[in-house]
């Protein structure tokens, strides 16, 4: 690819020629990208909002603490009781809310890039439900522990994606057909999951139902470290696949002209996107809405794509889930809610707005 072709490929940058951009390059140009000042300001604001939400999550609870006391527990001298409350009890949940929100946002960005459709997210296509089915099967077989549940979640999501891919394939995979087939599989898997919960014993059904609502209740550091380690690896992979996402958004013909292996790249994005979703589902259950909304909100705020777009999407997803978790814990005093119930409630309103906006454009 010539230098002229490379520059013409950067459609989002060329679309805003008057916007000043900073060019970031690593040694030997292993990684280079352009960041406009609007994106820097928006990402900085998102980070500040995320820090404020984190402090609120660590301050609120049955024992309410001042923000200064929280900072002392994290970085300075404090009592053992305060450190236990902040660091051992509240911090794991707050950190996982940030990490899982980022994971869902990245997963949604990959599937929306693949389908080139604002509705192309794992929860709409049915991959969340497939991961849930995989976990239920593992529970039925007596599996316990994070590794077994994570394996069931990943296998269930991959199996669902394979079926959706096969049924949607017709001289390649088109985004709209993938969404329609995914919605159909989501409906079928919902029925399967309901049948499983009806047939199992009451204790297992109650445990699966609470987990299936999407919850971070009772998370401590032993449960937090494995998904955080996997999350780090997946984020590095996401940086590598970001250029493929950008090329696929140009359309299949344009991407093929640039030498991109279409179906191989689509399968890679599907696998990485499912891995992000399965990571969250294995620990917290299926959490809807974040993967659907975060990529669109980030695009509207920053108008960025590629690696920079993934960073802003991850920040928006982290902020959405962190705020939802704070609301879930403290909206009704003495009655903590599953965070998935909060995201679904917000997501219903967002989906109505999105459908109205898309209808107005057509």
TrEMBL record:
Q: Which InterPro entries would you find in this protein's record?
A: ABC_BtuC-like, ABC_transptr_permease_BtuC
* Name used for this protein in its record: Ferric enterobactin transport system permease protein FepG
Q: Where are the transmembrane segments?
A: 40-61, 94-112, 124-142, 148-169, 176-198, 224-242, 267-294, 306-328, 335-356
Which CDD domains does the entry mention?
TM_ABC_iron-siderophores_like
Write down the membrane topology.
Multi-pass membrane protein
Give the family per the record: Belongs to the binding-protein-dependent transport system permease family. FecCD subfamily.
Q: What is its main location?
A: membrane
Gene3D superfamilies from the UniProt entry: ABC transporter involved in vitamin B12 uptake, BtuC
Q: Where in the cell is it found?
A: Cell membrane
Swiss-Prot/TrEMBL keywords:
Cell membrane, Membrane, Transmembrane, Transmembrane helix, Transport
The protein's superkingdom reads Bacteria
